[in-house]
Design goal:
heterodimer; A: 114 residues; mainly beta; seven-stranded mixed β-sheet; four-stranded antiparallel β-sheet; B: 111 residues; five-stranded antiparallel β-sheet; 0% helix
């Protein structure tokens, strides 16, 4: 049982390049999330998918797109990377246990845009 | 502006000391969670509190949810080096299916 996996673990991009961050979970969770973590800012929600087939914007969606490919997989795409998108990106998933949405996180992708 | 403010932002203490971390908001939450994150890893859930005034204990960690469900605290007794990490609170508002995360408290316990 791998939990939440993310690829790649590290990535360096040049300004204007594009890339897709992959995330998969094997816990049969309905909801999946993408966050970015910057120093002093905690975790900020980029996009989330409450269930297969739906996606919604979070706090900081500009410059990103997402795809909920199936129940297991949720990808994050940067179409034209900018230095301001240098960050650590975390994917998370949650089941609707009661109403608390406890989240399980992947190990993160460390992205640098030069 | 952050919906959840944590204090202090940084805390460095000696092994064996006690400490309290605070998570404050002007908003009401239906539940509040605490996570711990170690360097190079994702956050890991420690506890969820859902009732105003609720107190939960996890070994040497004591979590409390404010009576008005706007704030929470984490108290660690006799801190150990293994407690070192980034502590994050996260709140869920009624009807929402996502969490708002606090700014984090980075704790260092010196042996």
């Amino acid at each position: 049982n791998a939990g939440v996996t993310q690829t790649p673990k590290f990535q360096v991009l040049k300004t204007g390049q594009s890339m897709t961050l992959q995330c998969a979970q094997d816990m049969n969770h309905n909801s999946m999330y993408w966050y970015r973590q910057d120093p002093g800012m905690g975790l900020r929600l980029i996009y989330y998918s409450a269930s297969e087939g739906t996606t919604d914007k979070g706090e900081v969606p500009n410059g990103y797109n997402v795809s909920r490919l199936n129940k297991r997989e949720f990808s994050l795409r940067l179409e034209s990377a900018a230095p301001s998108q240098t960050s650590v990106y975390f994917c998370a998933s949650s089941a609707r246990q009661g109403s608390n949405y406890e989240q399980y996180f992947g190990p993160g992708t460390r992205l640098t845009v030069t | 502006t952050q919906l959840l403010e944590q204090s202090p932002q940084f805390l460095s203490i000696q092994e064996g000391e006690n400490l309290t971390v605070y998570c404050n908001s002007s908003s009401v939450f239906s539940s509040l969670q605490w996570y711990r994150q170690e360097p190079g890893e994702g956050p890991v859930l420690l506890v969820t509190v859902v009732t105003g005034g609720e107190v939960k204990k996890l070994k040497r960690l004591t979590f409390q949810f404010g009576d008005a469900r706007k704030d929470s605290s984490l108290h660690i007794t006799a801190a150990q080096p293994g407690d070192t990490g980034l502590y994050l609170c996260a709140g869920r508002q009624t009807g929402a299916n996502n969490l708002f995360f606090g700014t984090g408290t980075r704790l260092t316990v010196i042996p």
